[in-house]
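Sequence only, no structure available. Ideas?
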Amino acid sequence: MNTIVLDNTTRASGQAETPARVRVTQLRKSFQRHGGGGEVIPVNNISLDVAAHEMVVLLGPSGCGKTTLLRCIAGLETPERGEILINGQTVYSSPSGILLPPNKRPVSMVFQSYALWPHMTLFDNVAYPLQARNVPGRDIRQRVLDTLEVVGLTALAAQYPGQISGGQQQRVALARAVVSQTGVVLFDEPLSNVDARVREQLRLEIRRMQKALGFSGIYVTHDQNEAMAVADRIAVLNDGHMEQIGTPEEIYNLPDTTYVGSFIGSANIWKGTVRSMAADRIVVGTTLGDLVIDPRSELMTNAAPATPGAETRVLVRPESIAVHTAAPATAVNCIECVVDTRVFFGSSTEYLLIAGEERIRVWIPGISSVPERSTVWLTIDPGRLRLIAPSIVANADEGR
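Reply:
I predicted one. Tokens follow.
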């Protein structure tokens, strides 16, 4: 087998950082609602860099702008303002009047529907973009076979799309996207049409193949688990804005806003007022009582600024809360609750606890059999709490 090289850049220790493979600068795209319903701005002044070998996931609910942003990069939508560079080439620039059509942009795309030719064999489907680029026939065969081997479909090269499974069709779509060796692949919710079990397998395979082949990718999904599995970095979008971008660990452990904290994973978020501040403790008054936060903890890295008297938000993940069947003798952040609901999930047991008007989610590893309607006490380590800001989007739903 010949080596498939999609990217000839290197990242040796101490080497200067390679230029962005995709650079989006202050991009804006709007639509007019039908019937005079006003303007919608799904991409509102967004800037984004995707490095060589990097997979960036655009994550958010329907209507947040992630697909429109991807289509602008692909050339399937025309923005009104901003710039897009791919592999150092300007493909769109409002100041310079540059607008390259999709077929002139150095990208490949994996669609939600796979978009395979049903009358072509798998070999011919993968070969098609090379034929369209007038690659010599002797080179096409070797490149197609090499790519099919990477995705594990060499033995099925003579089959037709209707003869293979949905998961295998997805692999063919990926093979067709990378065979052109553009170095940049765009994914438009590629796993939405496969069942949950196949989806879990394919997202790991996409991650493996992306690292093996070395292409840069931009991947659109609304599924947070999928995003965490395939991403080097996640860009969380909200109503046309980018709320935060960072590694999966940063997005989960260090969310900047209530929107990010609640959209990624599960979170308990409470409104509060800063009562006092010291080098080793911040006290925040909430409907649960005063909560003590350790400002020295890793979870307070780049946390929302706090000053005495200021309103803020306090976040804690369900797995960071301990539950006791008897009141602890001495404990900070100790709250008496009633067990409302208990659900066993195999690897963990989830509780919904009631404290006054607050409903608190707690995850206990493994089997836990505290009965419903019983009284319990939860405790939260001050180092497991984080101060966050409201969403950057005005009037955003903080309870999301």
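Residues 1-16, 394-400 have pLDDT under 50 and may be disordered.
Hope that gets you unstuck.
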